[in-house]
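2 proteins. here.
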Amino acid sequence: MISDNSIAQEIVQVELPQRKTSIASKKCWYKQLWFYVLLAMVVGVAVGHWYPAFGTDMQPLGVAFIKAIKMLIAPLIFFTVILGIAGMGDMAKVGRVALKTLVYFEVMTTIALVIGLVAVNYWQPGAGMNVDMATIDASSVKSVVSQTKELGTTQFLMNIIPNTVVGALSEGHILQVLFISVMFGFAMVALGDAGKPLIHIIELASKTVFGAVNIVMWAAPVGAFGAIAFTVGKYGAGSLMSLGKLVGYFYIVCIFFSVVVLGIVAKFSGYSIFKLIRYFREELVICLATTSSEVVLPRLLDKLEQLGCKKSVVGLVIPTGYSFNLDGTCLYLAFAAVFLAQATNTPLDLMQQIGLLGVLLLTSKGAAGVAGAAFVVLAATLSTVGSIPVTSVALILGIHRLLAEGLVPTNMIGNAVATIVVAKWEDSLDDEQLRRVLDAK
């Protein structure tokens, strides 16, 4: 292994000037990235509202930004996980961290599903809509419904194993990249001293990818403008007003989970959830604008290390969390599924909802690797349960992007909290640095 001193010296030489610039820029709020993203969002809303046709044409700007970030995620996860495992140097420790991580994920996603079910049953936003299934245009969701056949448990597990190593990296499936990264990481540990030169190369490659991410992130305001202008231009305020009760209640549930549930976890870990949200404000704004948490994954990895979490823990928890710890997605799936049952007058007793909860525990884990993510998984869940009409998902097709404004930031905050918790369990968290960074103005 490369000595810690040599790695530390390299990091100081490469990153220290950037950190000084970052600290200096915090004195001027109007020079920070989040300000430009917010400004772009405001302009995007105005353009989409008054010039809807032009706003709809701006969609490629948002899509291009997301694609530019996603092309860097696979190599970044690959390098980060390998370095994390190699940094631990102990396969038993890797297994222990992985086990604790998965247990935490399962507990938190279960809590999210239960909260979603309780909230939607209490408010009943779909009651009284009396939707006649014969009047629903099923053609709008035909392509989505056709994908549900591919989301069985066996197929999901088989899809974790890529056809080729290069294919996993090129296609960008997070679980497949994570799978081959763990294998290569263990192989690197087994090499011992002979693997030192390769570890050094991977370290440099990782820094290079992070540098490319920093370059792409400066296009975030352009991407945010395109995404927001398209959403407002295509769907308009009418979509929000027609199903405003569903959207409003769902936002409340997401805020409750993020502030109260994750806030309690944060409190026990020794910090304030509000300070953590402030620390990740730029990433949250970008998530809101693009309705994608993947676009901030590289920055999440970097900023969690700056918080005092060891690279080895960050490299394992975050990539895994993006597939198995989607708290916001679980809230969405539970809330939307029961809402559609209420809207179509489909009776669901307690036992049926418990069965729905069990199905969601499985289907929610496949959201990260599916094109269309939560919406496709929702259709797959209804197809599995059988009692709720699958084509009823067309009711929320127009507002899915609005609902994503709540679930995506919740996913991001949930994974940040999870990383700090696991790091603290493993004595891999610098508490003093955590407090210092979060308290910084």
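next one coming up
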Amino acid sequence: MSHPVLILGGTSEGYMLADRLVGVGRFRVISSLAGRTETPRLPAGEVRIGGFGGVEGLVGYLHQQGIRFVIDATHPFAAQMGWHAWSACQRASLPLLRLERPPWQPEPGDRWRQVTDWTEAIAYLRWLNAARVFLAIGRQELAHFTGLDDLWFLIRLVSLPDPLPPVRQAEWLLARGPFALDDERALLDRYRIDAIVCKNSGGEATAAKLIAARERGIPVVMLQRPERAPVPSVATVEAALAWLESVSANQGSAKTQQASPSSP
């Protein structure tokens, strides 16, 4: 019997988990992608793309598909989806796990300013008197940096937003990680970058820019992660697999006890 598992995905961890679960063969694996990338890489197993229509829509989907387990492997900054998953699983009485890579931590030599919103980030860029800024924040957040006509931006994205935000002085660079350290060094040097703005996404795929910035003494404005729903959390695919095995075994044991005749 296959156990339906819904992976709220889009991260490398979500893709790896889908691969492993499909290989196990005992789970029906459904990955949900937000659909913000025009040509997303499709994970193993079944795939659905797009929103659910809020908590109500997600509850309906969980019941319709007979989902037994939900794993939230969305981006660390996809907080709204995480809260929706928590509310829906509470209402549907389903176990929910958060699979999230650890955040980056500053190391000796780093010049980080950790901020809680983009207003604080822009204020710090002003304090730095930065002139040439590398924006590595994703296309959803670019509107916050429009109107800063005295700054020049290098904006790296997987795909261009439509329409393009009115950033007056910018070069658009389309690329998908992982990024090699030598390439990041060359990029910072070629574009004469004097500040970096990014989110604390964690992971190895995009960490090389932080090493290159440390080597060059370039300041990094780092947006901290938003508050997440109060659910069990693991940092690795192996730990998520162990959680699934444990929870599915407990569910099976509970069903066996319910089905067995009561003692005289």
